[in-house]
Design goal:
The chain is mainly α and 210 residues long. Helix content is 70%, strand content 0%. The radius of gyration is 20 Å and the shape is globular.
């Protein structure tokens, strides 16, 4: 049996649960394990994410004769409401960064202080907006919207110092999204950047914070 050579069970305790799903898909294609068991494991993994539609699809596949659980329906309503709230809160911020002049400043800037000063003086930017950007990015990640997460994490990283409480989390988050979207070139860049930051020892956060 190929199952005895499979290392997934040894790897998964060290991985973010979002990174486990591609491994599960691989196992499913290889038909190493019973498909129903894999689907149940996926459903369990999804329980601590906001990927509710995915969970509802799997639940429907596993239990086609049963009505959709009230728990998942309630969770979906809460997730949608929170997503809308964060979207409303973050819209004024992203309107600033939709400005072509601001985009040029972000791309050319190598000094986060100068960039923040420019935004404060010219676009009514406030430092507390950064927490909103990070929360929104993290929520998007939990919903499985990985491409959007990478963009928001990049923006956040450009505007804070390595000592920011969420800086390291933003690096890990961006790297994870690039792996999940198979953006290998940027993933390699961020892996090297992450290594530099960890080796420097200047951060004040851990990937599990926030």
């Amino acid at each position: 049996s190929m199952a005895q050579y499979d290392l997934t069970n040894k790897l998964t305790p060290y991985l973010d649960r979002h990174l486990v799903f591609p491994l599960m898909e691989f196992l499913s294609v290889r038909e190493i394990y019973d498909e129903t068991d894999l689907q149940r494991t996926k459903l369990d993994l999804l329980s601590n994410t906001n990927m509710v539609d995915f969970a509802m699809d799997i639940q429907g596949t596993l239990y086609p004769d049963k009505p959709q659980s009230a728990e998942l329906k309630d969770k979906r309503s809460r997730v949608v409401a929170e997503l809308k709230r964060l979207q409303t809160e973050s819209t004024p911020i992203f309107d600033i960064f939709a400005d072509p002049d601001v985009q040029k400043q972000v791309q050319s800037s190598r000094d986060y202080k100068a960039l923040v000063n420019y935004l404060q003086e010219n676009h009514k930017f406030k430092p507390e907006m950064l927490d909103v950007v990070f929360k929104y990015a993290k929520f998007q990640y939990e919903c499985g919207n990985y491409s959007a997460t990478a963009d928001y994490m990049y923006l956040f990283r450009c505007l804070v110092p390595p000592t920011d409480k969420n800086y390291l989390s933003s690096l890990w988050g961006k790297l994870a999204t690039e792996i999940l979207t198979q953006d290998w070139e940027n993933a390699l860049d961020d892996l090297n950047r992450l290594k530099e930051v960890l080796d420097s020892g200047v951060t004040t956060s851990t990937p599990l914070q926030a």
